[in-house]
Structure formats: C-alpha cells, structure tokens
Amino acid sequence: MNRRLAGILVPVFSIRGERDLGIGDVSSLRDFVNFAAETGVGFVQLLPINETGPDNSPYNAISSVAIEPMTLDCTPEGLKDLASGGFAEVVAEVDLAALKAGPVQYAEVRVLKHKLLKKAYDSFCDKVLGRVDTRAADFEDFCKGQAAWLNDYCLFRLLMDREGGSQVWQQWREEYQDKDRALAAIAAEAKARPEAIDRELRYHAYVQWIAFTQWAEVRAHADAKGVSLMGDIPFGVSLYSVDVWADLEIFDLDWYGGAPPETLFKDDEFVQKWGQNWGIPLYRWDVLEGRDFDWWRRRIAKTAEIFGLFRIDHALGFYRIYSFPWNPVRNAEFLPLSHEEAAERCGGRLPGFRPRPDDSEEAKAANRAEGGEYLRMILDAAGDTEVVAEDLGTVPDYVRPSLAELGIAGMKVPQWEFTDGHVSSGLHYPNLSFATYASHDHAPMRAQWEQQLGLLREANRNGHDHWEARHFLETLCSFAGIERLHGEIPDYSAEVWHKLLRELSISNADRVAVLVNDLLLDTERINVPGVMDGTNWSYRLPMTAKALLNGAEFRELRESLKNLLNETGRSRRVNGS
C-alpha cells in the first residue's frame, strides 16, 4: 500500500444500496468499497459500529464489542437461514419504498430488521441447530470462543427486552439491576421453561454470530480490493451499557467524563458555563492495570478483527479528562448555580480535570507518563492495526510530543493549524498525522463556507465587519491558494472544492480524509452536537453506492477524484491493475 493514502468518511447507515431496507448495511458498504477502489481511495472511514441505544448515536453504544444489528444485510442473500418466501412475507407488512426514501427511519427499520432476523433464527433453530452441520458447529464455536463478553451481552439484551427495550439498567426492576441477582432470577425462571429461556438468550448470540460473519466477509472483500476499513473507538462507554452493568469494578460512577467550558457553543449556556457533560463513567485504571487491562485489550482486539486502522475518539482522555461530579440528567439543576452552590451539593467537589489538572510541571509529567502507558497497551493490543488519535479540543502541550514518541498519528485540521500567526502549510505537517477539514460533528465545507460568507456579506452590507467569518474564509483561502479577486471571497464552487481537496492531498500528512458530504458538495449534516430532535445520525446519500461507481452522471466526479489522487501521490497501489 502507498504510505500516503486518502480516505472518505461515510457512516454505514448513510450508504444507500440497491437492496437496503431503509438503512445502509454491509452490502451497501461493499458497493462503496468498490467505488473507493475504482477511484484510488485507500481507506473508508466509518463511525463506531457497536450496537446503539434508542438515541441511535454510534457514540452511545450499549456494548463495547457487540455489533449493531441494523448494519446487517437482512435479505435472503445476506441471511442463509432466511427463505425468500419468509422475507417477502415480512417485507409485505411495510411500505418499503417509503422506508427507503429520505433519511433513516430508525424505529421502523429496527422493527423490520429484527423481524427478519428472528424469522431467520427460527429457521436456524428448526433446521440447523443441534444437528450434524458445519454451521451449527460454527455457531457453537462462536458462543464458546466469545463467552467472555457474549454471555453478559445476551443476558443484558434479554433483560432489555423484558424492560420494554430500555437500556437504563438503573431503572430496571430491582432484581435485574445487579448482574448476580439477575442471573439468579433468570436461572429460577429457566427451571420452569428451560428451552424457552435458552432460545431467547441464543437469539442475541445468533445475531452477533451473523454480524461478525458478515463483517469478516466485507473486511475480506475490502482487503482483496486493496482498500482498508477504518474504525472508530470512543474513549468512553455509555453508563447504560452491558460493560458497566456487568463489570462495575472497573468504572468510577462518582464522576462523569466530558469537556471543559468553551464559548464556541454560543447557543448552549451550560457548555459555556460548565462544559460538556457526556455522562461517561471514568475508568478505575488501578483496577484495570491489576487485570492487565483485559477489558481494553478485548475491545481493541475485536475492533482489529474488522478494521485495518482505527481512530480513538477523544484520545486526550487517556492523559486526563474533564469530569463532572453529577450525572448529566442533573445539568439543568446545576446550570443556574454558582460554583460555591454546586460544590455544596456535591460534597465539595466541582468539575475539573482528573486524575489531576495540568497545573504544574510535575502534574503534566505524571499525566503524560500515565497516558503513554495506557496508549502503549492499546498499541500492543492492536498488533499490526494502525492507530490514529483524535487529539482535538483543549490539548496540553505534552500530548502531541507523546503521541509522536509512541508512533500514533494525531489530527490536523487545516483551518485550526497556525504557525507564528499564519495558517500552517500542509507541507509542514509531520508524516505521522491525519489531516481533514471536518468530522461527523461538523457541517460539510460547502455549508460552512456558504454560512460564513453569508454572515460576512450581510455584515459588510450594514457597514460592519464579521471578524470570525472573515477569518475562517481567509484562512481557508490562504491554505488552499484560492484567489480573492479584489479581495472578495468567492462563492463556493467546484473549483473551490477542487482546490481545497488538492491542498489537503498534497499535504505531508500520511493520511487525509474528507466527509462523503464534502465529496458530493452536499450541505446536509450527519450530526449536530447537542440536538436531540431525532434528526441526527439519519443522513443518507442521495444516490446508491453502485450509481457512484457506474453512473454516467458521476463519471466526472470519479475521473476528477482519480486524477487528483494520482497527481498528489495518494492513489493506492493495486497489483495487476
């Protein structure tokens, strides 16, 4: 593979496939990999694929290992145990054309896919399980080999089913809130109907067996095409996950991780005053170390089975993490309080960095040493899989030297990189870096450009200046060599897009990536942080991945991307083609 590779960030759920069921899946991803291979793109960057809760956020998963069932190909082509007649029977209950149109309709899609999975599972139980059959043996081997995490997961999912689909285990009936008592309760129930309980539990194991099988197949396909799949591992895990419920000793539920206050969130008074409270429990690193970091090692190893490289979201958390002494459900309660009043309600505790703030050289040295130790463990568990660190935000001065020492690439966002007051040239980026204009949390570049240009022109019409908008646009123009005729910022166009992409590609960073929205000059967003109206994580491409690969209307896009990657030395190398 070429050392200098370009990638496209696209959530699986966003990819449109010819036979998808209202959400992108591994079959759609396979088609997108083909498009990447055709154009010389070296990797496809995905968001976390772990099973999510009702908010559908990939960063709020109910398991650090289990795969989201919605990513599965639930057609008869994808599920060996699903007959075409059974598929047609289930699909006839929905308006599939309406389900496939527009953004992801999670509630309807989730019901549909689980009906199909359960129909396939029933067939598997009736015709395969318990017989002399290679697939039956494979399933049993999977259950035994993955028991360390799978048993807890299946029990947790069964209890979720009993509790109306809620993953908030702290609000479950009392005997389910504790793992040992839950085991005893289900064991007692199983005495009366052992086969029924066993079948319920094994359904969730079956879904994960199918999931890991399908993802292994799409990884093999990507490898054969010379394209790497890039994964994403959030630093924290949801409080309402099987991981916390089943293994409380490695988590500190007295503190919740987040980010310090910042004024960029102009519409969020809480973030400006207190910071972002993500609600992720902190780790008891001393307990984890005593267990040789077994939980982390398993999490990384399972990720490495599927992905050739992965990003650690909020890698700064390994060094120190801004923490809150209250659960985010209480944020509104604390918003109007003074620091003194908040401390009084929290036993003298206030939000701040843990395990210690960077308030002295000794503290910095301790944070750097501990963070380095944890990340070396991550690298050891990853083996040959490449690790990238998302190191954005309030970054201590020792983090980037530490990452470089470890051989981990950090992030470079051109419009945020300055040297002596001027935007840094991409030619000065270290090889060991990952450059991109925007992540899934940002608007695509066209949307950002048009919004800021609109603000600037409106201010100019009123005889004023909009410094922030002008600074953003002039920074990008300077970075990409975009001409400003008579000092005027140009409208966003295919030419502006090409110059931005070209300058990113000729940078010295080993890895560069663009949002799929940017590639298509789209303005729709994948996620707007803090918005809870159900629109997040539902963005879908306006065309199928096969159309991107073969459609005459996208020939110019394919040729432009292919030529650009060849010219800038970023096209992957393909044997025999």
SSE blueprint and pairings:
Blueprint: E1 5-9, H1 26-39, E2 43-45, H2 84-91, H3 96-100, H4 106-127, H5 134-145, H6 147-162, H7 179-192, H8 194-224, E3 228-234, H9 242-246, E4 251-259, H10 269-273, E5 276-283, H11 285-290, H12 294-306, E6 309-313, E7 321-324, H13 331-334, H14 339-345, E8 352-354, H15 361-382, E9 386-389, H16 399-406, E10 410-412, E11 418-419, E12 422-423, E13 433-436, H17 445-461, H18 467-480, H19 494-505, E14 511-515, H20 516-519, H21 545-550, H22 555-567
Parallel strand pairs: 1-2, 1-14, 2-3, 3-6, 6-9, 10-13, 13-14
Antiparallel strand pairs: 4-5, 4-7, 7-8, 11-12
Radius of gyration: 25 Å
Structural class based on helices, strands and sheet pairing: alpha/beta
Shape: globular
- Give the oligomeric state of the chains in this entry, treating copies of one chain as homo and distinct chains as hetero: single chain
How would you summarize what this structure contains?
Helix content is 45%, strand content 11%.
Tell me what you see in this structure.
Helices cover 45% and strands 11% of the residues. α1 links the parallel β1 and β2. α1 runs parallel beside α8 and α17 packs across α18. The radius of gyration is 25 Å and the shape is globular. The chain starts with a strand and ends in a 10-residue tail after the last helix.
